[in-house]
Amino acid sequence: MLYFVGAGPGAVDLITMRGHRLLTEADVVIYAGSLVNPELLNYCKEGCEKYNSAHMTLEEVIDAVKKAESENKMTVRLHTGDSSIYGAIREQIDILKTFNIKYEVVPGVSSFCGAAASIGAEYTLPNISQSVIITRMEGRTPVPERESIKSFAAHKATMVLFLSSGLTEELSKELIAGGYEPETPVAVVYKATWPDEKIFKCTIETLPIVMKENNINKTALILVGNFLGNEYDRSELYNPTFSHEFRKGIE
Predict the structure, then answer these.
(1) Do residues 39 and 11 lie in contact, with contact meaning Cβ atoms separated by under 8 Å?
(2) pLDDT of residue 175
(3) Measuring CA to CA, which residue among 204, 225, 223 is closest to residue 129?
(4) Is residue 51 part of a domain?
């Protein structure tokens, strides 16, 4: 059996209880070494085989899983954050199916949730933004034209950008060309929830300068939108005059 486990955003105590249990029981752990906090491996039992997938190809990962299966061992594939976002698990699952290897996906806390918690922000504010766009800049891996930063920027919704820290010159231009005002607030969260986390506040226009001055070019999330500002409407849910299924409002 193989378990895809979301390791959480970085802090070792933000892995789920289920993920923690499976990590302590695993005979083999294949972890995303470039992103997963290595301290999580301290939860592994003595004798557990550990593979750093940062140095492996997809085929080598599958071979390690097949070897474990042949030896009747349980494997944890430890991904950063939640494996459903830029986790590359679909290609692994499709191959596992061809070998009739059973698997289960265990969700984790995504870094975009960790980043919001670190800055004390709410992505969805009444009359400001009710949608969150999770995306990335086009780099070595292409992005469909219909999902360009410029096209998404036209919505002026909350935007969370993964894998874009080294491309902020072009990112800034695309965001402004798409419709965001240059002074739209931005928060950069480097290694969200890790012990060496860093937070920088700026605007779309000043983003490239801030990134360069602080030498941030990887392992950071870029949060864009007016949810970072100070203006928003009060939620109706807790408004004394608002009635709903569980409470009658004051007339």
Answers:
(1) no
(2) 96
(3) 225
(4) yes
Q: Within 10 Å of residue 118's Cβ, how many Cβ atoms?
A: 23
Give mean pLDDT, residues 18-30: 98
Decide if 221 is inside a domain: yes
115 & 100 share domain: no
Domain count, the chain: 2
Residues 84 and 145 in one domain: no
Q: Are residues 121 and 196 in the same domain?
A: yes
Considering 87, 106, 125, which residue would you say is the last residue of a domain? Answer: 106
Model pTM greater than 0.85? yes
The verdict on residue 79 lying in a domain is: yes
Which domain covers residue 27, as residue numbers? 2-106
Strand positions, DSSP E, the chain: 2-6, 28-31, 49-52, 75-79, 103-106, 132-136, 158-162, 185-190, 198-203, 220-224
**pLDDT above 90 for 192:** yes
Instruction: Indicate whether 169 and 205 sit together in one domain.
Output: yes
Q: Give domain status of residue 218, yes or no.
A: yes
